[in-house]
Amino acid sequence: MPSLPSALYTVQKLEIAVDKARARIETIEEQLANDEVVVARRNALDKIIKDYHHTQTTITDLELEISSLAQKIKEVNELLYSGKLKNPKELTERQEEVESLQRRHKTLESRLMTVLTESEEKNKQREAAEEALSEAVTNQKQENIDLIAEKESLQEQIADNLRKRKSTMKSIPDREYKNYRLLRKRKNGHAVAPLKGNACGLCGVSQTTSSVQDIQEGKSIIYCENCGRILASV
Ligand SMILES: [Zn+2]
After folding, report:
1. Ligand 1 center–CA 232 separation, angstroms
2. How far does the centroid of ligand 1 lie from the alpha carbon of residue 10, in Å?
3. Are 214 and 182 part of one and the same domain?
4. Element (H, E) at 194
5. What pLDDT, on a 0 to 100 scale, did the predictor assign at position 144?
6. Which among 142, 169, 196 is the end of a domain?
7. Could you report the per-residue pLDDT of 185-227, keeping only the tens digit for each?
8. d(CA 177, ligand 1 centre) in Å
9. What's the 9 CA to ligand 1 centre distance in angstroms?
10. Is 7 a member of any domain?
11. Whether residue 198 sits in one domain with residue 162
């Protein structure tokens, strides 16, 4: 049967290990839920696809307008050379109308060329973004395999440490455990310090000879004269 201070020291070691493993599992779960690289690349691809679709819509609209203008130009030209227009003023007006329509046609053609180039560029960007996303997804899968394995191993480790803790707890009276918990909270997670030589293993301050003897006997709880932690001979 271990002495009370050394049983408390064992429980502390196990509890610290469990806390640490639980914190790591929490981090792993966050990482599994949200891979920043994949999310960023997916957003980038979505934006490119949206821009690409926008250029496609503009192309369709421009092509429609250009084709309707061409039809209109053809009609006015036919009218001009039909011999139906006798009035010179009307002829001039129609002539000017054709010229204006042709200017508009030219502007739209040029705009169409620009948008076609943009669209091609977006398409290339889309291919690159798709590749980048797929690469990130592959990396994430590999990382996830590693993370899931680590999580499983931590869970086993926690279960094992909790079993050991339960068994050690049998030798610790409730009142002493309660005292230890309060001290642990106040002492930054370490209520028990191992005795190193004749000094406290945490603050390094030497203890009196009689204290050291009492600690080695382990019959009662002796506190460090400096930091107030329980000292255990381990
Ligand atoms: Zn101390």
Report:
1. 11
2. 17
3. yes
4. strand 192-196
5. 92
6. 169
7. 999 999 999 999 999 999 999 999 999 999 999 989 999 999 9
8. 19
9. 14
10. no
11. no
Domain that holds residue 190: 174-232
Distance (Å) from CA 137 to ligand 1 centroid:
51
219 occurs within a structural domain: yes
Q: How far is the CA of 134 from the centre of ligand 1 (A)?
A: 55
Q: Measured in angstroms, how far is the CA atom of residue 54 from the centroid of ligand 1? A: 70
Cα 129 to averaged position of ligand 1 atoms, centre (Å): 58
Regarding whether 153 and 104 lie in a shared domain, the answer is yes
In this structure, the answer to whether residues 115 and 206 fall within a common structural domain is no
| Sequence-ordered list of residues with C-beta below 8 angstroms from that of 115, at least 6 positions apart, any chain | 55, 58, 59, 62
Say how many domains are in the chain: 2
Q: Which residues of the chain have pLDDT under 70?
A: none
Same domain, 41 and 126: yes
> Which residues are found with C-beta within 5 Å of the ion, ligand 1?
200, 203, 224, 226-227
| Cα-based angle 221, 223, 228 (whole degrees, multiple of 5) | 145
Q: Tell me how far CA of residue 227 lies from CA of 176, 186, 188, 200, 224, in angstroms.
A: 19, 11, 11, 9, 6
CA distance 175 to 111: 85
Q: Does one domain contain both 121 and 221?
A: no
3-state secondary structure of 195: strand
Residue 214 DSSP label = H
In this structure, how many other beta carbons lie within 10 angstroms of the beta carbon of residue 7? 22
**pLDDT score recorded for residue 221:** 94
